[in-house]
Amino acid sequence: MPATYYTKEHEWVKVEGNIATVGITDFAAHQLGDVTFVELPSTGKTVKQFEVLCAIESVKAASDIYSPVSGKVVSVNEVLDNTPEVVNESPESAAWMACLEMSDPGETARLMTREQYEEYLNGL
Amino acid sequence: MEQLRETPLIGRHTALGALVAPFGGWNMPIQYEGIIAEHRWCREKAALFDICHMGEFLYKGDIVAGGLDHLFSFPVSTIPVGRSRYGFLLNDQGGIIDDLIVFRLADAEAMIVVNAATADNDFTVITSRLNDPALIRDLSAATGKLDLQGPLSRDILVDLLGPEIAEIPYFRFIRMNILGSEAIVSRTGYTGELGYEIFLPSEKVTQLWDLLAANPGVKPAGLGARDLLRLEVGYSLYGNDLDETITPLEAGLDGFVNFGSPFTGREALLKQQAEGLRRAKIALRVGSRRSPRHHYEVWSGDTRVGTVTSGAFSPMLGCGIGLALVDPVVAATGTCITIRHENVTMDATVCGLPFYSGGSLRR
């Protein structure tokens, strides 16, 4: 049964077995406005939890995307190379950015559940 | 902190769900449905902009005897009645205090349209340089301004205001009655599209906005789309590409300077011209969808050669575009440069202007 977790930097991560799929939340996509560029990570890149995974640019701003978990990038969503607007259309589904092979499944304990994330958004 | 000013249309903007943010001392709509959608609508249909924040000054008196003729980078006396001209208010060093448009309303009457953030200072400077300060009045608060820009704008305004709209050439205007008040309809804009700027009393602005917005070809557009539209055609933005430390020669805008008659800053510009420029404005195209942004660094190999003054992702070109002030050694078209900011690097090429030339501007 996959479980989805959230970060304070507004990334989501869906965990199935030891594979983590990462993207940004609807809230983040809305804050960014029209997304014009996604810098996907290279496959094979290893990253630690909460370190920079990749970057995103919108008409308004450039920002980093942080990895919700530690691991190795095993695939990226190349659709976003030429159609980054998918991030605005479907941030929490079609616009996944990378899949990571997790090195420490226990790290999800440092992330928020959907309920906790929504509570966090209400406090912003 | 100074209280942000609001245009008569603030209620319309909030009702439309606009993102409203400070710009030049005003609370202005940045976007409604989305910057790129509004940009596209302007390129394909007609976009309506609330531009009430800009400043308008009315000069009444003999153009030459009153001192107006020598105030700007061109002589106002040479503008025929019914036409307008773009140029600069300069300081003694040739730096740009503001870029503006002068409308020759009558033989002894002119309207000066200036940027919002600079309006108060412009008025002080202009008044101090006139022979009699009573010749000019600041009508900014009493004057509303709506821009309708896009290929459908002429047909929409002909239907609403009358057939005379169709006869206005580029950089000319007519005075007409709109909603019972004297108004000015000018064939000018900031988008590279066929378009009009309408000046009318601020108490009539909401009524005209509603009439225009009711047309199915019209959608409101915010300052975000306006910034993208102007950059795609290479227009400068005061505060980004132009300021008091930059001269029109450095900004590549010497075509709007008339050296044949005296004006403040002329001697400094002639000296700069004789000595050669130490920096020059360039246009640049990035080799990816990455956006250069204001203040990003421009490098040539291992040498820092300048600074980006404006940058964005161009929806029409599908790549990043920008304007920059650089060492003239890298100013030639085709020169390869690098844009850097923190850990971001992008390869770019110096190119000509406009970036986008498919607009309906002169249609």
Q: What does this 3D model show about the protein?
A:
The complex is a heterodimer of chains A (124) and B (363). Chain A has 124 residues and is α+β, with helices and mostly antiparallel strands. Chain A is built from four helices and nine strands. Chain A is 19% helix and 37% strand. Chain B has seven helices and 19 strands. In chain B, helix 2 (35-44) crosses helix 6 (223-232). Chain B is globular and about 65 Å long. The model of chain B has no long low-confidence stretch (mean pLDDT 97). The chains are: A alpha+beta (124), B alpha+beta (363). The interface between A and B is medium-sized, with 13 and 16 residues.
Please write out the topology.
The complex is a heterodimer of chains A (124) and B (363).
Chain A: E1 3-6, E2 11-16, E3 19-24, H1 26-32, E4 35-39, E5 46-47, E6 52-58, E7 62-66, E8 71-76, H2 79-82, H3 86-89, E9 98-102, H4 114-122
Antiparallel strand pairs in A: 1-2, 2-3, 3-9, 4-6, 5-8, 6-7, 8-9
Chain B: H1 10-15, E1 19-23, E2 26-31, H2 35-44, E3 46-50, E4 55-60, E5 84-90, E6 96-106, E7 109-114, H3 119-129, E8 136-138, E9 143-149, H4 153-161, E10 173-178, E11 181-186, E12 195-201, H5 205-213, E13 218-220, H6 223-232, H7 266-275, E14 280-286, E15 297-300, E16 303-314, E17 319-326, E18 336-341, E19 344-351
Parallel strand pairs in B: 3-13
Antiparallel strand pairs in B: 1-2, 3-9, 4-7, 4-8, 5-6, 6-7, 9-12, 10-11, 11-12, 14-17, 14-19, 15-16, 15-18, 16-17, 18-19
Helix pairs in contact in B: 2-6
Query: What is the number of helical segments of chain B per DSSP (H or I, 4+ residues)?
Result: 7
Q: What is the CATH topology assignment of the largest domain in chain B?
A: Gyrase A, domain 2
In whole angstroms, how far apart are the ends of chain A?
Answer: 31 Å
Please give the CATH class of the largest domain in chain B. Answer: Alpha Beta
Give helix and strand order of chain A, one letter per element, not per position. Answer: EEEHEEEEEHHEH
Question: What composes the largest sheet of chain B?
Answer: 6 strands, mixed
Assigned CATH architecture of the largest domain in chain B: 2-Layer Sandwich
Low-confidence stretches of chain B: none
Radius of gyration of chain B: 20 Å
Number of strands of chain A: 9
Number of domains of chain B: 3
Question: Tally the helices of chain A: what do you get?
Answer: 4
